[in-house]
């Protein structure tokens, strides 16, 4: 009988789990998240990266990185490792049958042999990576839908985004209320200027502009902006605003439904109870927003124009943040 050994995750010892998970998630353009325990998690595709805060300094003899090796049978997996030259250091078991054994390989590198009969640990890591639990303005998340990856816009997206911002048919859908520009561009340099503005002004005024990246081509095909604000004269609950700019080729019901469905995760991520978006009527975008449970909303805030839709949820406790 085989022990069925596979890499469960790669674990990193660190001082700031959220910051490192943000770095690696954005470098790999993969979803990531954070909780006080177990720490920062990146969905790296075939495995997870786990970042855990430890008291030992970086120059400690302890490895800063180790593999967690999952096996079907813990005793058998440990015995097999020992037969190959590993040594046992410590072990832990819980009442659910999950457990792990800390070991040294033949060159004294730490690794863990782990077992999770119910699969609860893997489900926990997956849930963290899809629900960031951080301040999104300081530690920008990476989100995924079936068709798109969303990560913070970069200046090198400008050439791709010209297909969106230089398209006259896309311009009527831009929500430029309370903006300093209409973002109607005719060349890459103008798009670069817009991106530089979003990055600088977004940091100062707490909004996040994502690039919407087509997962098939790797091309940025639009942007999505989101921010949250406390309750005020025009909203009785904490509210957020979603702006969506897309290249005309992606202004389809299927793609729009995917993007508006992100609102469900934005409630927690941006700590809001209502999300507004400006959508012209009698358009595929309007129908997609209605299908995502947005509804007409009378928003009389000065400077706001056109028809707004809103999606509201019932309050619940916010996730802890680093």
From TrEMBL:
Entries under Pfam families matching the protein: Glyoxalase_6
InterPro entries per the UniProt record, alphabetical: Acyl_CoA_acyltransferase (IPR016181), Glyas_Bleomycin-R_OHBP_Dase (IPR029068), Glyoxalase_6 (IPR041581), VOC_core (IPR037523)
Stretches assigned to the VOC domain: 6-116
Listed Gene3D superfamilies: 2,3-Dihydroxybiphenyl 1,2-Dioxygenase, domain 1 (3.10.180.10), 3.40.630.30
UniProt protein name: VOC domain-containing protein
Lineage, uppermost ranks: Bacteria, Bacillati, Actinomycetota, Actinomycetes, Micrococcales
């Amino acid at each position: 009988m085989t022990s069925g050994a596979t890499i469960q995750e790669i674990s990193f010892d660190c001082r700031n789990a959220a910051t490192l998970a943000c770095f690696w998630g954005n470098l790999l353009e993969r979803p990531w998240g954070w909780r006080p325990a177990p720490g920062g998690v990146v969905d790296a595709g075939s495995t997870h990266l786990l970042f855990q805060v430890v008291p030992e300094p970086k120059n400690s003899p302890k490895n800063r990185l180790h593999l967690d090796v999952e096996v079907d049978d813990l005793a058998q997996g440990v015995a097999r490792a020992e037969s190959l030259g590993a040594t046992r250091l410590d072990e832990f078991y819980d009442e659910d049958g999950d457990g792990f054994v800390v070991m040294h390989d033949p060159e004294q590198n730490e690794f863990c042999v782990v077992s999770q009969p119910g699969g609860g640990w893997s489900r926990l890591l997956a849930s963290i990576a899809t629900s960031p639990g951080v301040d999104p303005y300081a530690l920008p998340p990476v989100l995924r839908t079936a068709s798109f990856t969303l990560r913070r816009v970069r200046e090198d997206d400008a050439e791709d985004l010209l297909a969106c911002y230089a398209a006259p048919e896309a311009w009527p859908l831009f929500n430029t209320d309370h903006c300093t520009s209409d973002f109607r561009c005719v060349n890459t340099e103008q798009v670069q200027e817009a991106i530089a503005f979003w990055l600088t002004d977004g940091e100062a005024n707490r909004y996040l502009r994502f690039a919407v990246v087509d997962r098939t081509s790797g091309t940025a095909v639009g942007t999505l902006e989101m921010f949250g604000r406390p309750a005020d004269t025009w909203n009785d609950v904490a509210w957020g605003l979603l702006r969506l700019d897309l290249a005309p080729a992606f202004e389809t019901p299927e793609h729009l439904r995917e993007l508006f469905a992100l609102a469900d995760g934005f409630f927690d991520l941006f700590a809001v109870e209502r999300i507004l978006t400006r959508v012209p009527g009698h358009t595929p975008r309007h129908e997609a927003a209605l299908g995502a449970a947005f509804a007409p909303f009378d928003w009389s805030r000065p400077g706001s124009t056109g028809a707004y839709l809103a999606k509201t949820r019932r309050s619940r406790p916010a996730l802890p943040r680093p």
